[in-house]
Amino acid sequence: QVQLVESGGGLVQSGGSPRLSCAASGFTFRYYNMGWFRQAPGKEREFVASINWSGGSTDYADSVKGRFTISRDNAKNTVYLQMNSLKPEDTAVYSCATHLNPYGNNINYPSREWHYWGQGTQVTVSS
Fold first, then answer.
1. What is d(CA 89, CA 124) in angstroms, rounded to the nearest whole number?
2. What is the pLDDT of residues 55-80, one digit of tens each?
3. Whose CA is closest to 82, among 24, 11, 2, 22?
4. In this predicted structure, what is the pLDDT of residue 105?
C-alpha cells in the first residue's frame, strides 16, 4: 500500500535550516507529483510547495518563496524540503502528499485533491 513517511522535524532556532524528507513506498514514485503542506495549531492546512514527477517544475507558497526549496530523488523514492531562514510563524506539522495522476502537468491541486498523505513531522521554531 502507499506509504509516505516524513522525517527531519524537531525544535529549531529562528534562522535555522533543517531539511525534511519524505520517503515513499507502495507506488511508482517517479511517475507522480509530490507536495508539502503544513498545519499550524488552530489553523487550516496550507500549501507549502510542490514538484512535478520529473523535478523539472516546482511551485511555492508566497510565504516560503525564496526560503524553502523542494526537490526529489527518484532513485531514492524521496522528496525533500530544504527550509532556510526559519521564522517562528513557520511552526507547524509538515506533511507530504502525492497526487496519483501519472506524469501530470498540474502541481497546483487544492489540498483536498491530493490522494495520499504522510503522518507529518512537527517543526517548532523558537524565537
1. 9
2. 999 999 999 999 999 999 999 999 99
3. 22
4. 86
Task: Burial-class residue 67 by CB neighbours within 10 Å (0-12, 13-18, 19+).
Answer: middle
Strand positions, DSSP E, the chain: 3-7, 10-13, 19-25, 33-39, 46-51, 58-60, 68-73, 78-83, 92-99, 116-117, 121-126
Question: Letter for the amino acid at 23?
Answer: A
| Nearest-5° Cα angle at 122, 117 to 123 | 125
How far apart CA 98 and CA 87 sit, in angstroms, is 26
CA dist., res. 87 & res. 19, Å (int): 15
Report how far residue 100's alpha carbon sits from residue 51's, in angstroms, rounded to the nearest whole number: 13
Grid cell for residue 12: 529549531
